[in-house]
Design a protein that fits this description.
This protein is mainly α. The chain has helices at 15-24, 32-42, 44-50, and strands at residues 55-56, 59-60. It has a domain at 15-60. A two-stranded antiparallel ribbon has the order 1-2. A hairpin with a 2-residue loop joins strand 1 (55-56) and strand 2 (59-60). Helix 1 packs across helix 2 (32-42).
Amino acid sequence: MEHFPAQSVKPPATYEQQLNILKSRGLNVNNEDMAVRTLQRINYYRLSAYGLSLKHDDKYHIDTTFE
């Protein structure tokens, strides 16, 4: 039986933490409750992929909103 060294696993971020990450990258969020509910339904990574065209150097363009 092969043994692999233990790898540290990054714990999953809460929906609120995910929203804070988006906000830290310059995304404007007017309704945080709606944004959290949307993240619960859609998935952070799908939403992030959609936002690729709305960013430059990992920062959202000015006036980009979650809504």
